[in-house]
Amino acid sequence: MKRILVTGGAGFIGSNFIQYMLETYPDLQVINLDKLTYAGNLENLRAVERDSRYSFFQGDIADRQVVMELLSRKKVDAIVNFAAETHVDRSILRPDDFLKTDIFGVFALLEAARHFSIARFVQISTDEVYGPIPEGAASEASPLAPSSPYSASKGGADLLCHAYFVTYNVPVVVTRAANNYGPYQYPEKFIPLFITNALEDKPLPLYGDGRQVREWLYVTDHCRAIDRVLREGRPGEIYNIGGYSEEQNRVIAETIVELCKKSPELITFVEDRPGHDVRYALDSSKIKALGWEPRVSLEEGLAKTVAWYKKNKDWWKKIKEADFKNYYTAQYGKRLQKKGPGNGGEPGNTPSRS
Ligand code: NAD
Ligand code: DAU
User: Fold this and answer.
1) Range of the structural domain that residue 220 is part of
2) pTM of model > 0.85
3) Rounded average pLDDT over 218-239
4) Is 268's pLDDT higher than 90?
5) What is the CATH number of the domain that holds 42?
6) Is 314 known to be catalytic?
């Protein structure tokens, strides 16, 4: 594999993936196509921007002309699609762009892959397509039951990928990963929001009773898994990528305040997310059979992540002081005034591990 197109490479996982691939493969060329939405940030790629093996194009994956023109100028061996609207809470406020990018964008990329007979297409999907998993773990054969406009759009794209493999023989592989965390994650997501709010002595808005469970995957472990699937995954197949580290949100919140050396009083229960999935859990034995397993434990990963946000205050302060402020007020303003279960009526607002 000599040249790959990475879409959405200016976001959290995409930028980590580009850095990982350029570090790992000295002869690889990487082209990054990104629209630079609010979540895209070229500062994430400072370390590689002058690397002659890397090039950046600003453009929308849902614009078929943009995608076709780029691929007619640049021959690539593979497409790895990270580009998406990704935040569940934003999809609840305004689903429109989720359908445009996460479904029509994938359609445009699949059409281009078909036209140019691209040798490999990796669609980065999510464990959220399975919906809540109260017990056990979802395998790749589990039914899709997405709860939010975000996960429904991602699920729609997964089905389109399957159809393009079956009907047109486009060599698509789909990965479904658990919740990622690590450096360069936009501070709207749970872990970076809680770390940065804690560092600023602001309340940490914990949804509902905080007992929801997520399976956490450190971002470089995810990058290694995608690389493995890109090279060794079988076309037409789906691969779950879990972190083997399930935890309740309230415990993550407590750990963050401890690591930031702040008071647990900052943890503030607020009104729950509508349609909040109670638990995600993946059976990742299929990708393990390809020889991959996560290397970073949740304990180590959280400590590394807190250290990164402490060291890179300029990166996140710039974001939080710009448009993010409006989003934060729309999402949390009323919720924080009218706190949820655990606050006020119930004893104490500090969660316990029980
Ligand atoms: P992110 O929100 O940090 O970044 C998304 C990137 O896509 C941004 O750079 C943005 O500018 C770009 N983008 C958005 N719309 C675009 C468009 N129409 N055309 C071109 N570029 C566009 O997202 P992330 O957390 O890095 O997630 C990357 C992928 O991984 C997504 O497909 C997401 O569904 C999937 N995923 C994320 C997680 C997670 O926990 N973050 C877990 C599993 C799967
Ligand atoms: O599971 C994979 C998915 O993980 C990805 O596909 C999504 O792109 C990514 O955003 C993430 O979705 P979640 O909804 O699980 O992540 P989020 O960080 O928004 O929330 C994690 C948990 O924390 C969830 O149970 C909701 C809770 N939460 C989140 C926020 C932002 C809070 O309690 N308070 C908050 O302010």
Assistant:
1) 3-182+216-241
2) yes
3) 98
4) yes
5) 3.40.50.720
6) no
